[in-house]
Amino acid sequence: MPDLVTEQNASTEMLLELSFKNVSYQYPKASHASLTNINLTVSRNKLIAVMGRTAAGKTTLLSTINGLIPHFSEGKFKGQVLVKGYNTQEMSIQKLVPYVGFVMQDAETQILGLTVEKDVAFGPCNLAYPRQKIEKNVDSAIHTVQLDPYRHTSPDRLSGGEKQRLAIAGVLALESPILVLDEPTSELDPQGAESIYHTLLQLKQTGKHTILFSTHDSQFVIDKADELWVIDQGQIVYQGSPRDFFCDPDLPRQYSLQVPMISDLFRRLKADGIYTKSVLPTRLDSAVEEIRSILKNQINPLPIVSLSSHSSEDPPPVKHKKVIDIHDLSYSYDTGRQAVKNVSVSFYEGEIVGIIGRNGAGKTTLLKHLNGLLKPTSGRVLVDGLDTRQASIEQLSSRVGYVFQNPDHQIFSSSVYEEIAFGLLNLGIDRVALDQRIQEALQHTGLIGKEKIHPFNLSKGERQKLAIASVLAIKPQIIVIDEPTTGLDWEGSVTIMEEIVKLKEKGHTLILITHNTRLAAEYMERIIIMENGSIVRDGKANMVLSDLNFLREHALLPPQISLLAEQLKEYGVPPHVIKLEEMLEFIRKYLRGSVCS
Amino acid sequence: MFIEYQAGNSFLHRLDVRTKLIGFLFIIVAAFLFSDPLYNMVIVIGCLWLAYGIKISMQKLKITFFTLLPIVVLIILLSAVSYQPDSFQKPLSRIVLFSLFPGNFITCTVGGILLGISLSLRIFTLVISSTILTYTTSLDDFLQLLRKIRVSYKISFIITTAIRFIPTMENKAQQIIEAQRARGAQFDNTGLFKRIKAYIPVMIPMIVESLRMSENLAMAMLNRGFGATRHWTVLQEIKARPIDVIMSIIFLGALTFLFFIKAAHYGNL
């Protein structure tokens, strides 16, 4: 009998891959703790998502698992992290490698080999595995992440998604049973993210791995993760089923997590009293069913015609002044790759345009022509009637502001104020006007009061705002923003987008590159879709984003509301509904109408 | 100037890196052994024939040739007037074409011109033969050679990493320059001080990024078990095949033969 008990204990110990016991941690020189009293246990073969707002402590938590904390980042560490029963404090990071594989967020700096194959072999070689075993592991790791055709390729020829997969393969080859991935998809386009998800699911299927990953993508977590941990201000505030968390009308908002568009819709319906269940649907199929049952309950629905005719009414198109005219533009890089092919397009005063397309479709190459960073190989670009080939960078930068994706690529001053002043000084603006312009820019981006702070003490979202402010101060008529919301949590994304919409209202022309079709649906007026260097679609946002066949054909993810609208056609959902508000309006009217009749 | 490694399966590609280095040495010594341009011409033609055989782009070699042309002209001009007639053995070389100053003070000799041509041909030999070497030998082979001669793993890792991150850093620099140009920064200032000042907005983000990357790199190395043990597995080892031994013997034999010819006063001016 006692034998049986110990055996049972032993087997539960075996199943417990990882446990945190009262873990607290404070970075050196930090004023407050980054982790407080974490108690968690993880059993084998689980796919666990870690979510939370920016700087909530996700990376810090994950870094304790393989010993980077406290071995690499020193500081005050309390409690225990046990990996397969081993205390991480007592083992070096390298000795933990056979148990924990850690993939950091930035794939680029994790690639240490001159070819894909050499890079994957780097880890096993360090652990002095026998040569045959290494060859076997490398083969299977490369195969799992589907990089077989690139075996002998140099890593700098890979795309972002491929690099991220290579970083994963480098860890897979170590055969660690626990895999930890810090935001593996945050810098990728939807196709790249999809390939990473595919890899994660495949790994889970092998039954050999316990996988922990942090992410901002709630839909994948809801659909596929076994467990969700939500961390906020260094504390675990939720541990359990992802669906339960996202079904809750309040929890996700409280911790600044993006909920699926449909869940948001149901939260609003619930607030209206239209939807009465306590849990919100999180998936499209259940959402369709719920709405059907809501609508079906109405005995005499309003005639379809009157409903649809109202919403599809378009305000007559107002012809605004043309500010940019691109005529038959082609551009080839020195390598001979033609990135933009015979593009003709115009942009108008006061419009907000979203440019969508895969990585490498030519979006950035096209937009770099607007401020003269690139000059056309053939064709011409006119900004305010000025040919960019003849204009100086000074002339162009005062007309077209360009905010790049990574704010850290431009920030160099020791205060927010000086950073914003840089562009103005380049234009030779006098001190008095300078101060006024800076104050305005601070105000627009909500950075007022922070002008004396060192930029690197700002959060990522604030640095993004600073980058925008430094361009805004120049007062360009046209503002180009490359991926304004990358790496930001939901709250951060919404604040940035709202600032952007305000700029549009002030008459600026805004051109945004984005992968996020939800943001595109909610905020853009016009959508341009690029593919292989050409514009394949240019039209009003509601026309383009509701054309599901077209979007699918071009491997673009339609906004969830468009998908919902398609499924509810029989109820007379007007065509071209893409926004949450529009769908809400339809449901309200439908119900009201039927009550009246 | 050098053409980077191209994977291939030519005879030269398949030779061991050590054999190729011996061959390379043989060519260089041969080129420096003889001062007669005819001999050097033969060597250059031999090298070109090799380059052609392994399909090195002749277009690129031509570009290299033209970039070197001004130097070649300068060398020949300088050499022509740098020697006194009695520094040459052959009567032909001793012929003085003209003197720059009366009294045979600075003389232009036939030997000087011929030697200048030889010097130039040596440069071509160096360029072409090193191109052939780098074209047919992967960096990996060189790294394995380092290991064979017991250079520490860390040093070869440093070399690998440095090469790995060259394109990454170039890319970063490009992005930073573009971000600053978009805010009206100008980099084509004249004057050293102005130019340095203009590059501050590029240098600071570059340094910050490099620091961030190097910290990440250090973590990534630990995550992959760098330094876990004192031993590590070597995946591929360079192996000399019989053909390598044969070729090495041929090179060394040929080299000895050249020394004999030299000793018999052939190939002098």
Key features?
heterodimer, A: 597 residues, alpha/beta, Rossmann fold, 6-stranded mixed sheet, 25 helices, disordered N terminus, B: 269 residues, mainly alpha, 2 domains, two-stranded antiparallel sheet
Report on the structure:
The complex is a heterodimer of chains A (597) and B (269). Chain A has a six-stranded mixed β-sheet, sandwiched between helices. Chain A has a six-stranded mixed β-sheet with strand order 16-17-18-13-19-20. Chain A is built from 25 helices and 20 strands. Chain A has three domains: 4-249, 3-Layer(aba) Sandwich (Rossmann fold), CATH 3.40.50.300; 261-309 and 561-592, no CATH class; 348-377 and 389-558, Rossmann fold, CATH 3.40.50. In chain A, strand 7 (178-181), helix 8 and strand 8 (210-214) form a beta-alpha-beta unit. The model of chain A is unreliable at 1-10 and 304-314 (pLDDT under 50). The radius of gyration of chain A is 26 Å and the shape is globular. Chain A has 597 residues and is an alpha/beta fold. By secondary structure, chain B is mostly helical. Chain B has two domains: 1-137 and 239-269, no CATH class; 139-238, no CATH class. Chain B contains ten helices and two strands; from the N terminus they run H-H-H-H-H-E-E-H-H-H-H-H. Chain B has helices at residues 11-14, 17-33, 37-53, 58-80, 91-94, 110-136, 139-148, 153-181, 192-223, 242-263, and strands at 96-99, 107-109. In chain B, strands 1-2 form a two-stranded antiparallel sheet. In chain B, strand 1 and strand 2 (107-109) form a beta hairpin. In chain B, helix 2 runs parallel beside helix 10 (242-263) and helix 8 (153-181) crosses helix 9 (192-223). The two termini of chain B are 31 Å apart. At the A-B interface, helix 3, helix 4, strand 6, helix 5 and helix 6 of A face helix 8 and helix 9 of B.
